[in-house]
Amino acid sequence: MTAMEAAVDAMLAAASRAFTSTFAIAIQIQGCMICLVLALGWAAASIVRKGVIKNMRRNIVDGNSFAFLCDNIDELEHSVQENLPRVSVVMPLKGFGEHNLQNWRTQITSLYGGPLEFLFIVESKDDPAYHAVSRLITEYKDNLEAKVVVAGLSTTCSQKIHNQLIGVEKMHKDTKYVLFLDDDVRLHPGTIGALTKEMEKNPEIFIQTGYPLDLPSGSLGSYCIYEYHMPCSMGFATGGKTFFLWGGCMMMHADDFRQDRYGIVSGLRDGGYSDDMTLAAIAGQHKRLIFSPPVAVFPHPLASDLSFSRYWNYLRKQTFVLESYVSNVNWMMNRALFTSHCYLSWGFVWPYIMALVHVLAALRAPYSKVVKEASDSSWGLFLVGLLFTCTLIELVSMWNLTKVEIQLCNMLSPEGPKVSLDSYNWGLVFIAVLVDNFLYPVSAIRSHFSQSINWSGIRYYLRDGKISKIERENSSKYTDLGGKHLYGKRTYPPNKSLLGYLSRTLVQWHQPKKYDV
Q1: Residue 1 pLDDT class (50, 70, 90 cuts)
Q2: In the CATH scheme, what is the code of domain 71-330?
């Protein structure tokens, strides 16, 4: 045996013994508990989503062929549709990525029967999105109320928030609800109607939201983003009240912005970096209700060329959010999230590092006396087996929730291309779980000490939780998380019954549709 081998064996034996100390065993059991808590949360979320599926199937059996739009088919009669409130959809755009056009089509072809306008907000006419969305609006001009608004450059807040606030200023004077959407959201035909129905049913709702179901494109970066979103998804699958808010889909009362209730306009405009974190903080401060209906889950196909560096850029933007705040209470909450998330992330990863050492020690033991003594005197393989079992339970629960949400999305979009679970690589999912949890604290710590971030070619600097300086750098023409599928065209003649239109088009659901792109 060479000196190098002896040194390595000694280190392996020492690590094996260290990782079976009382403290190390506690760390490994903690990691197993984290796996089981995640599995339990995803199991609970799947029950909520399954409830929607069962209800839709029951309605279909009872003769409601349009259960993907509403529970009661009578709601589709023209007499009901003509009394629906006006909704303005505000969508800030930045660049023209791989799948933006497809996503925009699913948004403007909504089957909402009430007055509906779309406001596409761009920074300038030089933005690649400007001409693309203008052509799309021209294509649907006979059946669509939409316009492109040039917002100009932001000076006191993030460009996204600036665009949103300009959109609110330009919305119709009779608008009752405003729906903020990201350009990578793929809507179901009944989404706007479902959100509006809940707002009408419960006026106490301050914000209504939903959450994306990531469809990885095959790269490790795309699986890391899928894994990053999955733990958060259980907070949106409550079937009602939640403390979570996703900026990709937010429906609010238009008058809240007109009257600047709770300081939402000033809170966003004066140094706001993150729309959802700012509004969630305001909701918590004023004890306002955030609501997430169980049907608000949206397929989110990720870009086919989503590299690991683009994932890292996305993670940096997400962790940077915790550095912004609107009040001292919000600052304390963000610090608590920062600390707990970093602790749990590395608390999740460390047991796998320890398990790797136990396995290597067991494999080396037959060839090294010192390693064999350390391995024989420990119960490391028992801990490995325990961690393996808990990990398997966690992955099965994640797989089950993904399967249920895919099934729900397919039912909510019967005309859309079918989403499949077959495309998921669960080996890469496991690797992504480890990579994402390892890198999250690294990204969070870097964000804390840098206090600056590059977001779509714009660098923001924070001071006291608010944007204090904005520098514009070389911007990218592409978004990080683009979608990749088309929906069919869904419009119906004005002054006609939506139910009648749906009946006429029901037989065409599975016919191919072509568009010139």
Answers
A1: low
A2: 3.90.550.10
Percentage of the chain beyond pLDDT 90 is: 64
For residue 37, what are its two tokens?
A: 């808590």
Assess contact for 443 and 316: CB atoms under 8 A: yes
Strand partners, 461: 452, 469
pLDDT of residue 481: 52
Q: Cα 310 to chain center, whole Å? A: 16
* Domain limits, the chain: 1-36+339-472, 71-330
Token code pair at residue 199: 């707002």
Quote the tokens at residue 444. 């969070």
Q: How far apart are CA 487 and CA 510, in angstroms?
A: 11
Taking residues 171-196, what's their average pLDDT? 93
End-to-end CA distance of the chain: give it in Å, rounded. 67
What whole-number distance in Å separates Cα of residue 296 and Cα of residue 233?
11
Which residues pair with residue 459 across a beta bridge? 454, 471
CB-based contact 135:123 (threshold 8 Å): no
Residue pair 272/453 in contact (Cβ under 8 Å)? The answer is: no
Q: Is 7 exposed, middle or buried (0-12, 13-18, 19+ CB in 10 A)?
A: exposed
Q: Give the tens place of pLDDT for each residue, 99-117.
A: 788 888 888 888 898 999 9
The residues, ordered by sequence, that sit 6+ positions from 513 with a Cβ below 8 Å of its Cβ are: 486, 488, 489
- Residue 471: its H or E element: strand 466-472
Residue 312 to residue 409: CA distance in whole angstroms? 28
